[in-house]
Amino acid sequence: MLSMVTFNCQSLRKNVSDLSDPVIDSSDILFLSEIWSNDDENVDIPNFNCFAKFKRKNVRSAGVTIDQKSKDSSNMNIALRYIREISMGQSSIGDTCAAHCVLDDGINIIMVVVYISFNSTVNNIVT
């Protein structure tokens, strides 16, 4: 079983302590949006490693990451044999990052997290 949680941080640095609760602790993958970090900033989340991240340059109030439970964590209940970030293009309407994962049993999964900027119109999103 693979368990995943999505969380709109509205500042990862400010809310990293909120990422320590029973639901998050039992999750294998975190999808985080609105991380509100500087372009070169990394925020450590206890028991997780960031393996995919995208943030538009000079746009502080956005950003997305995909984080995997640390290999040395005793709660890891699946084995990801292979995991890599997939490059995503930059968009003026939001941020997207993706990862290709292969589970121990050979099943392939594409994971994607998307943040659409406030005030984006449906027409801009669709085109």
From TrEMBL:
Origin: domain of life: Eukaryota
Keywords: ATP-binding, Helicase, Hydrolase, Nucleotide-binding
GO molecular function, one term: helicase activity
Name of the protein in question: ATP-dependent DNA helicase
Phylogenetic lineage: Eukaryota, Metazoa, Ecdysozoa, Arthropoda, Chelicerata
